[in-house]
């Protein structure tokens, strides 16, 4: 580490000489970015950044900032005066991109410390994915999250941020989108990484066994209980408890889970007294929780305890070029199962990969590729090998059809970006809310909106 210079960007107009000297002393190579310029950051190289709101002009300077801040490998620290926080755009930028916010006046020491921390978080991100790459070579392929589209980059950023806290995280998304992988990524980037990560699939355990699975039992608690058994909650002590498919948790168990979350103590079945347990809770589901609550299948009080921080896993079909990236990644990963040379995907396979809608998301992609690797006879994997032959050719389209589908896609993406908030999506699309509503109806998208976890109908958290 000694003598090695780490890159630090300063965005603003007034980097003080003492702070600059202090940073250089700590082996930072400081590059001042005049507002309006975008750094050329070497990919896969972590860096740190100071975003000095006290010296930026609002709103002129804020406009280009997204582009500067979007690099997932730079750990940003914002500094500014209290009144800078009154600007909603500033607050949004801090929330979305920065590891820390320092209110001025503050000592240079405090800034230097925060920068070191932000760099550490960004570097962790790099080394975690490098480790995963190494694991993949060593035959432990799980763990690496592939993604480069905007939606995935913002998910990675969110993962890093929620990892730094102990608050409960709720992950929503369709099946096979990577919810479990995300939960694990949070755990591995958190202070609990050396402690257990215990996953429970709430939907897969029969209701009458759930209670003892979760909380354990004492010897003699019921016929057949010859041994004391520690429950999964207790087994996660010190670490992270991942409650998968929480939407399928029976009401009866919801009550005991709520009690646990309130008291942070478990009571084994047939036991006297309770044991304190310290776990970080991450839950996930593909179920639409608003509907589940409305229909009385899920307790609202429990939901609000679980869903303090929310992450949305984008469906595969909304990830653009990432679909191909993932396909190639999976082919590399499972290639050895072929037992012969395989030279990538044929052009028809690539076309089909993009035309198909992937209802089963990444899990389906993996399954199709593994099957194709085994079944294919040529040197390349064809659309037929993926059983997607009918998706090679897109049916000929008229200009009207093309316009309609482009319009639909733009609307879908805007809604996804804004988590179903109609007002924000309409603004981005440059139309009124009323027009957006009419278009949603015309495209049959209204059900999608109400199914989104954070749509307008959701009570403010
Ligand atoms: N972004 C990704 N990069 C690489 N693999 C992924 C990604 N997302 C999901 N996977 C893989 O897809 C499969 C399904 O992911 P999982 O986390 O179990 O989904 P979910 O819990 O949402 O149903 C797993 O094998 C997982 O490793
Ligand atoms: Mg899952």
Radius of gyration: 25 Å
Q: Strand content of the residues, in percent?
A: 5-15%
CATH architecture of the largest domain: 3-Layer(aba) Sandwich
Which strand order does the major sheet show? 2-1-3-4-5
CATH class of the largest domain: Alpha Beta
Which regions have little confidence, pLDDT < 50, spanning 5+ residues?
Answer: 132-142, 453-461
Please, what is the average pLDDT?
85
Named once each, the bound ligands are:
adenosine-5'-diphosphate, magnesium ion
Report the CATH superfamily of the largest domain. P-loop containing nucleotide triphosphate hydrolases
Helix content: 40-55%
Structural class: alpha/beta
Tally of DSSP β-strands:
14
GO molecular function: ATP binding; sequence-specific DNA binding
Keywords: ATP-binding, DNA-binding, Nucleotide-binding, Transcription, Transcription regulation
Protein name: Sigma-54 interacting regulatory protein
Domain Sigma-54 factor interaction: 145-374
């Amino acid at each position: 580490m000694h003598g090695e210079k780490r890159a630090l960007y300063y965005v603003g107009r007034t980097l003080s000489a003492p702070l600059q000297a202090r940073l250089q002393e700590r082996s930072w190579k400081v590059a001042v970015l005049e507002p309006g310029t975008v750094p050329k950051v070497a990919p896969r190289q972590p860096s740190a950044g100071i975003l000095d709101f006290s010296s930026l002009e609002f709103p002129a300077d804020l406009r280009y900032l997204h582009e500067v801040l979007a690099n997932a490998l730079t750990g940003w620290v914002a500094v500014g005066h209290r009144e800078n926080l009154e600007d909603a755009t500033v607050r949004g930028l801090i929330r979305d991109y920065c590891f820390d916010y320092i209110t001025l006046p503050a000592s240079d020491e405090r800034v230097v410390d925060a920068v070191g921390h932000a760099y550490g978080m960004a570097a962790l991100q790099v080394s975690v994915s490098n480790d995963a790459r190494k694991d993949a070579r060593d035959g432990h392929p799980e763990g690496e999250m592939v993604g480069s589209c905007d939606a995935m980059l913002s998910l990675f950023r969110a993962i890093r941020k929620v990892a730094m806290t102990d608050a409960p995280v709720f992950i929503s998304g369709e099946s096979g989108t990577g919810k479990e992988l995300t939960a694990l990524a949070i755990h591995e980037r958190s202070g609990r990484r050396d402690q257990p990560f215990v996953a429970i699939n709430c939907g897969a355990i029969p209701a009458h066994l759930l209670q003892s699975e979760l909380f354990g039992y004492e010897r003699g608690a019921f016929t057949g209980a010859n041994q004391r058994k520690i429950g999964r909650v207790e087994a996660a002590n010190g670490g992270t408890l991942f409650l998968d498919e929480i939407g399928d948790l029976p009401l009866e168990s919801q009550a005991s889970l709520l009690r646990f979350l309130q008291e942070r103590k478990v009571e084994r079945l047939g036991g006297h007294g309770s044991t304190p347990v310290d776990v970080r809770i991450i839950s996930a589901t593909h179920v639409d929780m608003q509907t589940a609550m409305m229909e009385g299948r899920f307790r609202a009080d429990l939901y609000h305890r679980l869903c303090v921080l929310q992450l949305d896993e984008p469906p595969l079909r909304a990830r653009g070029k990432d679909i191909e990236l993932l396909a190639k990644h999976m082919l590399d990963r499972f290639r050895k199962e072929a037992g012969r040379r395989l030279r990538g995907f044929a052009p028809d396979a690539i076309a089909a990969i993009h035309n198909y809608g992937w209802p089963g998301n990444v899990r389906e992609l993996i399954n199709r590729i593994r099957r194709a690797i085994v079944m294919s006879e040529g040197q390349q994997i064809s659309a037929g090998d993926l059983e997607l032959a009918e998706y090679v050719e897109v049916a000929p389209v008229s200009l009207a059809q093309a316009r309609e589908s482009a319009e639909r896609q733009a609307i879908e993406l805007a809604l996804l970006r804004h988590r179903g908030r109609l007002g924000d999506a309409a603004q981005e699309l440059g139309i009124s809310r009323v027009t957006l509503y009419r278009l949603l109806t015309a495209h049959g998208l209204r059900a999608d909106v109400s199914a989104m976890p954070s749509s307008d109908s959701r009570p403010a958290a």
